[in-house]
Amino acid sequence: VDARHAGVRHSDDWDGFGQRTTGSGTSVYDNVPLPATHVIPFEQRFKYQTAFYQLVLLAVLAGIGRAVERDIAQEVRDRKRVFSHGNAGSVSQDSQVQQVVGQIAAQVYAAEAATLRSAEPLQRAYVARFGNDPQREKDANIAAEIETAKAQVIVSELVLRAATELFNALGASGVSVNKALDRHWRNARTAASHNPLIYKARIVGDWRINGTEPPFVWQIGSGKGNA
Hints:
Blueprint: E1 8-10, E2 27-29, H1 49-78, H2 95-129, H3 134-165, H4 182-192, H5 197-210
Antiparallel strand pairs: 1-2
Helix pairs in contact: 1-2, 1-3, 1-4, 2-3, 3-4, 3-5
Protein name: Acyl-CoA dehydrogenase
GO biological process, one term: fatty acid beta-oxidation using acyl-CoA dehydrogenase
GO molecular function, one term: acyl-CoA dehydrogenase activity
């Protein structure tokens, strides 16, 4: 619909603790016309669309991971106070603090690698869409769904862990509201909550064990028995 129509009302009522500027508020449509040409049945759209949307969320998580790695390295470099039972005269030279930062860097590296890997089957699904081989297209779409699901399970875990462990390299001052380092965990947790990870893992497991095809479209509020 035309978002500028007089019958369209948007409310900035998203109250999530993360991703606060996503514009995810409520929209109300009152007698808003919907031209038939604007309705595109699912079977006429690109069938790997849900996997594509998941890749966007994966990219968001990977980006949050990069921000975690950037901020913790800078915080450690700038930190002047040291603990009396630490391992060096400066925080940046403390081997255990270096280990924390190194682990975070490795977690972020793995998250980025998984995100990039999951983009490859999407490209193959895109190419298959323009071929004349229905079975090849179906197989490519399944691969895109499964690969992005696997990536979401592990990327979410890695980035959330990194966003928590960064505080192990800092003192109590690391939780300062002015630093807002908690935003990384809040944003990652919000992005990872768009699609429950338990279902992603179950879908992958069902595919690996039983060959059950993954769902290609889903939504909240229309589960079994709620039609």
